[in-house]
Amino acid sequence: MNFDWNYALDILPLLLDGLLTALIATVVGYVAALVLGLVFALARRSSKRWICLPVGFFVEFIRGTPLLIQLFFLFFVLPQLGLALSPLAAGIVGLGLHYATYTSEVYRAGIEGVPPGQWDAAVALHLPRRRVWTSVILPQAVPRSIPALTNYSIALFKDVPQLVAITVAEPFTVGRAIIAETFRPFEPITMAGLLYLAVALVLSYLGRIVERRYKGMATA
Amino acid sequence: MSSAQLGLLLYGAWQTILLTLGGMALALVIAFPVGLARVSRNKFLRAVGFVYVELFRGAAVLVLAFWFVYALPSLGWQLEPAFAGILALGLNMGAYSSEVVRGAIQAVPPGQVEAATALNFTPSQGMRRVVLPQAVRAMIPSFGNNVIEQLKATAVVAVVSIPELTFNGQLIWSGNGRAAAVFGGLLIGYGIMALVFMTMVRLIERKVAWS
Amino acid sequence: MSFIDFHQVSKRFGDNVVLDDLSFGVANGERVTLIGPSGSGKTTILRMLMTLTKPDSGTIAIDDEYLWHERRGDELVPAGEAHTRKVRSRVTMVFQQFNLFPNMKVLRNITEAPVHVLGTPKDEAEARARDLLEMVGLQSKADFYPSQLSGGQQQRVAIARALAVEPDILLLDEVTSALDPEIAAEVLDVLRDVAKTSDVTMLLVTHAMRFARDVSNRVLMFNEGKIIEDAPPEQMFNEPQHERTRGFLRSVLEEV
């Protein structure tokens, strides 16, 4: 069997459209994960048991179970409750929620890494609790979390192909539609896979640069 | 729930466990040579290890599974679906696990290698008798996390119609249309399996502790 | 050539010259203490003999065999793995941080090298290990893990482990620096015993000056990668010739 280059060239624009959708899902899902993760991390540190216990359980449960089924749940169950999401929206919510459980652990480690003396100093200065968080703790905790957070953007991108299961028009979904017309699966599937692989390799290269830069700053 | 449905779910759960263990076994078989290659003094071996890790960490399980199941037959290779699933899971997790191996080896204090040299061990004796036994203990918790990740990843191969828990759940759902019960039940089922695997890992951790 | 022979050895780390064209020899059976301010190259000497640090230039020989080179015809070429191992087999080292293997019990720490490097039968190696443990006063600790022992006990096990490979040359790199003075004394007593009962050649880097005076028959004073004074201990400690040596000894003795 030969790789049909004309066929490949014909379908490339369609697959690239799919890749664009995948990237949109990545970026929006990642931003959601960054914000939601911080909320989870703060909620789990709450002194009120009725907040920290359920949130803790929820976070552990989401992190311990497969993203794919969470996507099914969002896409097929929510409409029964009167909340119908488009495939892409369900995908973004699923990715954001799933990865928020990972980023919340990163934030937690970052917060715990702030020296206890900083809390003591904030108390000694009579700063209100909200102020302690916004001007003392988080400005120290978030920067030290950045390298690990960056890695999760790459991990999240690698989970985007799963959106094929809820018919988001990412490269594999596009590829399947093409195959339904042409009955030639080899080129679309191979190309969709290579597009994902190429972006993942570029992201991991960029991630290493970020990490190195942060290490350089830590030792400087 | 009918007994046919229950049977389908139990069979699916069993397949999920087999996929998890099979994928993890393949990952470990890959992880040690690749991890050792990454810390080798030989430049070529280091390069080979690096390429493997980058390539198969970059290639997600679903990408590999799709390619094995839908593209590879065009080249004349028809893989058994369960085998294709284990291959995709193991090749991908093998890249992550080899990073665990590498990290644990590099975390052994340099004084240990120096002591091995002072006792005139060969480099390979030093690796086998001194470095690896210490490194392996440090790997166990990370391998434990990998098992949980592997369990979660097995759901993905439902997309290529391998009849594990998620796929069989979908079958039941397409029959009865009760999405909340089926998918909620699946999530709880995976949660319980994760808990069981986690408990087993903790037991192993306690068993290998030496002091 | 002397038994241990350093010939024009140099070493630098970056801009920092650690050893500067250094030549000296040590006779078989000699006990030599290396003193001098930190960073003056003493530990580097030991690490080079143990093949843990590679010299930039110069040659090091043990009993007429080059450690980092081998002869090919008339030429000296960098040594292969097998050659280095063969020459190195006569040397061993005790470290500042003990470096016991935490995954092995005390007895196996001691028998591991005799059994797997020298090929000694296991029961023979174990009997010898128990003798050595008795010598260092730890016969009751054979089945303990290193982490269950105090620092001083760990260091005594490390000494037994080193003696088990039957070295001709024993290197002691600040073996009591990580220990409290009281605990250090028990380690030094063991080493005095070793010095008395064996004829092993010893090179030691230490800040324990009284100990150095007791066990060594020669003291080398290092400064900035060179040996600036070489004398028997009585002379070195009582009437040092070099101004730098006097300053150094004054500062060390004040500390104690």
What does this protein structure show overall?
The complex is a heterotrimer of chains A (220), B (211) and C (256). Chain A has one domain (5-219): MetI-like (MetI-like fold, Orthogonal Bundle), CATH 1.10.3720.10. Helix content of chain A is 81%, strand content 0%. Chain A contains 8 helices and no strands. The N and C termini of chain A lie far apart (56 Å). With 211 residues, chain B is mostly helical. The radius of gyration of chain B is 20 Å and the shape is elongated. Chain B has helices spanning 3-38, 43-58, 61-71, 81-107, 110-118, 123-154, 165-176, 179-208. The model of chain B has no long low-confidence stretch (mean pLDDT 93). Chain C has 256 residues and is α/β, with parallel strands linked by helices. Chain C has helices at residues 42-49, 81-88, 106-118, 122-135, 151-164, 181-197, 209-215, 233-238, 243-255; strands spanning 4-13, 16-26, 31-35, 57-62, 65-66, 69-72, 75-78, 91-94, 169-173, 201-205, 218-223, 226-231. Chain C has a 6-stranded mixed beta sheet with strand order 8-9-10-3-11-12, with helices on both faces. In chain C, a hairpin with a 2-residue loop joins strand 11 and strand 12 (226-231). In chain C, helix 5 (151-164) runs parallel beside helix 6. The model of chain C has no long low-confidence stretch (mean pLDDT 93). At the A-B interface, helix 3 and helix 8 of A face helix 2, helix 3, helix 6, helix 7 and helix 8 of B. Chain A: Belongs to the binding-protein-dependent transport system permease family. Chain A: It comes from Kibdelosporangium persicum.
Task: Give the tags.
heterotrimer, B: 211 residues, mainly alpha, MetI-like fold, 0% strand, C: 256 residues, alpha/beta, six-stranded mixed sheet, four-stranded antiparallel sheet, globular
Per-chain topology:
The complex is a heterotrimer of chains A (220), B (211) and C (256).
Chain A: H1 5-44, H2 49-64, H3 67-77, H4 87-112, H5 116-124, H6 129-159, H7 171-182, H8 186-219
Helix pairs in contact in A: 1-4, 1-6, 1-7, 1-8, 2-4, 3-4, 4-6, 6-8, 7-8
Chain B: H1 3-38, H2 43-58, H3 61-71, H4 81-107, H5 110-118, H6 123-154, H7 165-176, H8 179-208
Helix pairs in contact in B: 1-2, 1-4, 1-6, 1-7, 2-4, 3-4, 4-6, 5-6, 6-8, 7-8
Chain C: E1 4-13, E2 16-26, E3 31-35, H1 42-49, E4 57-62, E5 65-66, E6 69-72, E7 75-78, H2 81-88, E8 91-94, H3 106-118, H4 122-135, H5 151-164, E9 169-173, H6 181-197, E10 201-205, H7 209-215, E11 218-223, E12 226-231, H8 233-238, H9 243-255
Parallel strand pairs in C: 3-10, 3-11, 8-9, 9-10
Antiparallel strand pairs in C: 1-2, 1-4, 4-5, 6-7, 11-12
Helix pairs in contact in C: 3-4, 3-5, 4-5, 5-6
